[in-house]
Amino acid sequence: MELLEIEIKAYCEDGTAAETRIMELGGVFIEARREEDIYFNHPCRDFRITDEALRLRGVGGSTVLTYKGPKLGGRSKTRVEQEADIPDRAAVKAILTSLGFVESGRVAKERKLYHLHDVEICLDRVEGLGLFIELEKKDTDREKVEAVLFSLAEELGLTRFERRSYLELILDAAPL
Amino acid sequence: MELLEIEIKAYCEDGTAAETRIMELGGVFIEARREEDIYFNHPCRDFRITDEALRLRGVGGSTVLTYKGPKLGGRSKTRVEQEADIPDRAAVKAILTSLGFVESGRVAKERKLYHLHDVEICLDRVEGLGLFIELEKKDTDREKVEAVLFSLAEELGLTRFERRSYLELILDAAPL
Question: What is the torsional sign of CA B122, B89, B165, A43?
Fold first, then answer.
């Protein structure tokens, strides 16, 4: 069975309180990093309609190319995700452009990453959007992991969930 | 100005004689290697018509993704070429497949590479096609380089030139 990215996201009102609660629950701080993402739309299908994504993510000096399939239903944001390390970001960007992929938007954020048991917790300060918490686990069993993630969200006091991606939120907020 | 891949290709009747002649002219043997290429067609334009190419080339343990633009005219095979190193071949192949790229053919060859001044000479034994010599130089001035390459071809005794790619030759030879 294919590995799925099972993820829920919520607005975070108070970052300091959230961090304290993560540590109380046994979370381990992993790192803080800046992520700069460029999203591309497909030359002949509209990813806003097909609910797919193609992203070049720069973190420090390294870059990852990621394809995300459409959300698979359920209460979480669960998708097939395929990733490839890219040593030369500019070269891959040039090839994508030649193939007709068009830049559709950029997302930049300061991400604090925690591990709590086998869940990744991201405290994200997204430029232009504000503060969010994402809870994520890669697994094949969506329903089992959804129960774990929503239970953890409750322990963290999260209530305002958001199924749209950061890119969708930025594009929805942009003046036409 | 963009760097062009300026290349001519000819059938080679006698590999041993060609190698001797390359050395007599001052050529330096660089390496022998096996190259295994997978070509992809585009999800919404036909590269056989647009004369473009997208290729994953495996050489030893490493992989390069290459986009080639349409031939730019002249007597040579001159194209814009964009290349990116790919550490994880399977991951990029999976992403291309998800994006709708379809495998269109494979080319495998044993390549002997020589340098003669600033020209790359490839003596290629291509599976299913036979023996060829390619003369190649990356430059911005197509006409100047064409003159150099055809002059060198004459010194190597090459007479039967071929503008089709190995992939085109294989597809043209395949039973429908």
Answer: negative
How distant is the Cα of B164 from the closest Cα of chain A, in angstroms? 21
Q: Across the interface, which of A43, A87, A99 has its CB nearest the CB of B67?
A: A99
Measured in angstroms, the CA of B100 and the nearest CA of chain A are apart by 10
pLDDT digits (tens, 9 = 90+) for A34-57: 999 999 999 999 999 999 999 999
Q: In total, how many domains does chain A have? A: 1
Q: Which residue out of B11, B39, B114, B166 is catalytically annotated?
A: B39
What is the length of chain B?
176
Let me know: does A132 contact A124? Beta carbons within 8 Å: yes
Please answer yes or no on whether B95 and A85 come within 8 Å at the CB atom: no
Do the Cβ atoms of B42 and A43 come within 8 Å?
A: yes
ipTM of the complex: 0.85
Tens of pLDDT, residue by residue over A59-116, are: 988 899 999 999 887 777 888 889 999 999 999 999 999 999 999 999 999 999 999 9
Task: Tell me the CATH number at B87.
Answer: 2.40.320.10
Q: Which residue range(s) make up the domain with B161?
A: 4-173
Pair of tokens at residue B52: 């473009």
Nearest CA to A87 out of A55, A105, A54, A65 is that of A65
First-last CA distance in chain B: 41
Give the angle subtended at the CA of B3 by the CAs of B34 and B137, to the nearest 5°: 50
Question: For residue B136, what are its two tokens?
Answer: 């190649």
Ramachandran angles phi, psi of B143, nearest 5°: -65, -40
